[in-house]
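Before going further, learn to read the protein records used in this course. The integers have meaning only within a learned vocabulary of local backbone shapes. The record below shows the convention in full.
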Amino acid sequence: MSDFLDEAVLRPLLDDWRKAIAAHDAEGVASLFTDDALFQGLQPHTVGRPGIERYYAGQPAGLKVEYRLLQVRRLGADAVLGWAEADFTVGPEIRALLNLTVVAQHTPEGWRIAHYHVSPRV
């Protein structure tokens, strides 16, 4: 069960992530992560903003993502866990239907993604 206040942490963060991806703004996407974020995308994992920026810079122009939060849980005063379905598309032809797990951490910059993991939905 998701708590409304915890969703209020994740939704703006994931909305900004979605918008930065649609704008093909790799630097903007990376800025939403902590400096030492653990990132497990569909390519080999990386740690930190520079690797995350390289990952998104290598994605095709026109990439879009839509997500649906399925579960949100508070892990502590400064951490929120979220599980979502994320649908990545590039036009009508290319589509990746993924599970997305994130841990958001409250930092001096505000809420940032400290852990990101995707896996194929079955």
